[in-house]
Design brief:
It holds the Pfam family Ribosomal_S6. Keywords: Ribonucleoprotein, Ribosomal protein, RNA-binding, rRNA-binding. Belongs to the bacterial ribosomal protein bS6 family. The chain has two helices and four strands. The protein is α+β, with helices and mostly antiparallel strands. It has a domain of 94 residues: Alpha-Beta Plaits (2-Layer Sandwich), CATH 3.30.70.60. A four-stranded antiparallel beta sheet has the order 2-3-1-4, covered by helices on one side. The longest helix has 17 residues. The radius of gyration is 25 Å and the shape is elongated. The chain starts with a strand and ends in a 54-residue tail after the last strand. The model has no long low-confidence stretch (mean pLDDT 83).
């Protein structure tokens, strides 16, 4: 069996209980196909970058799946037919992440800069130099070409 991460977007006008019912429905499809669903994360209702089927917001859900490809294909088929699902994406992964996903971590804990460390002060850059592809920069204190 293969490991998958499956993210789907549900309509904004659904109640949280209806979203949970959708998750349970698709969990049942995976389990009927011989797979298992591990972690399920509700990322909450978030604004979309653009409108999808007249929706400006959607519920974002993540499911970690360990299943044969046929069961995942059946879930995708059912989601494509459902009017409650706006978008979905399934990605095959080598291993599931341990702990919460990046969306569930606090912004401070994400480590957006990675191993680059904190930003330096802007003062350690020194004075600007002229670029080689331009003529020399005129002196700012002189009144050449001005007043």
């Amino acid at each position: 069996m293969a490991l998958y991460e499956h993210v789907f977007l549900a309509r904004q006008d659904l109640s949280p209980q209806q979203v949970d019912a959708l998750v349970e429905q698709y969990k049942g499809v995976i389990e009927a196909g011989g797979g298992t669903v591990g972690r399920v994360e509700n990322w909450g209702q978030k604004s979309l970058a653009y409108r999808i089927n007249k929706n400006r917001k959607a519920y974002f859900m993540l499911m970690d799946i360990d299943s044969p490809a046929a069961a995942v294909k059946e879930v995708e088929r059912q989601m494509g037919l459902s009017e409650d699902i706006l978008r979905f994406m399934t990605v095959r992964v080598d291993a599931h992440e341990e702990g919460p996903s990046a969306m569930m971590q606090r912004r401070d804990d994400r480590g957006d800069r990675g191993d680059r460390g904190p930003r330096r002060d802007r003062d350690d850059r020194g004075p600007r130099r002229d670029r080689d592809d331009r003529g020399p920069r005129r002196d700012r204190d002189s009144n050449e070409g001005g007043e």
